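Hi W., the fe (ii) ion complex you wanted:
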Amino acid sequence: MPYYRVTGEIPRKRHIRFNRPDGGLYAEELMGEEGFSSDSSLLYHVHPPTAIVKSEAVADGLVPTKLAPNHPLLPRHYRTQELAVGGDLVLGRQPLAGNEDVIISFVAADAESELYRNSVGDETVYLQSGAARFESVYGAIEASVGDYVVIPRGTIHRWIPVGQAHVNALVIEARGHIRPPKRYLSDTGQFLEHAPYSERDLRGVTGPLLTDGADVPVIVRNRGGLTRLTYAYHPFDVVGWDGCLYPYAFNISDFEPIVKRTHAPPPVHQTFAGPNFVICSFCPRPFDFDPEAVPIPYNHHNVDSDEFMFYVAGDYSARAGSGVGIGSVTLHPSGFTHGPAPGAVEAVIAGVAAGRTSTDETAVMVDTFRPLQLGAQAAAAEDAEYAWSWARADKADIGRKHG
Ligand SMILES: [Fe+2]
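Structure:
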């Protein structure tokens, strides 16, 4: 993250002696991106963060080689509500799609995760329902519906569901960093006035967590797979940190939609940028306001992108007949032109004539610049009829639409 935060106690200057109350020294740790040449933070541990005592391989379902090509080519529709419920927010992930740059998973978590460090890239966890406490070496974030929690690569953390309901989440794992789009930022990293959100919308951690413990396992993901490293001391022993690299939360309801007189393309909804992908937020907003506007998307073919869309909230009654509803995921790949379902344009124009002025749909989109392959578990929740829904011109009640 581009701007500076400080939490807890830190010494007067970097890299000077910082004494514990017992006279010993706190252990300084730099968490830094791009080889000391980008954002970083300095953390002060009670114990050395280097002390490991055991390393064990972990069999897991997160390995991207379990993805299969989208062949024969089809647009896809998955109903996440039909996926298995259970597990935790780390090992319970069910990969739906992925490529060399990003893996997108769904999880319906009902259990606390182990401590986890992703050393492949940043993660963004979007909570569709439920609530969870995110605990990390930096401190804790109370996350709830609509939150994106952005977790920098290497952050040791765990997820604890809160309340009775399980936590439905979309997990976006990058092979690199997930950041606000550069065009939203000044040269020195401040959000510009035209950006659809700003520093005030980002929630950092509450004070540092101080947890005692010995022989504490941490699941580490690197490109070789998963390893369980056992640490001599609990990693949550940081008395303070400062810097520009840390986890934070942003709620989708704090995204300020940008509306044009005629239909605006998805880049106005962009929220984050990752390596070879973008994350966009489709939020409740007024319809395009020209009297002659067609206030839903035109048919489009983004020749360089695959488009993954997760429908998370809102009134989808206009989509009756398409099968797309809350909890649905659609995948519209390059090689296929998609657009409003038969009858959707006429239906929304009629709605505007009758006084309808806005849409309350909420969706999260991931557009990738390399083809998405399909997760094995997704097939169990696939609507096999979706690909043919545009051809069902006789079904005038089909109202599928999106950005
Ligand atoms: Fe689209």
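The first strand starts at residue 5 and ends at 8.

W.
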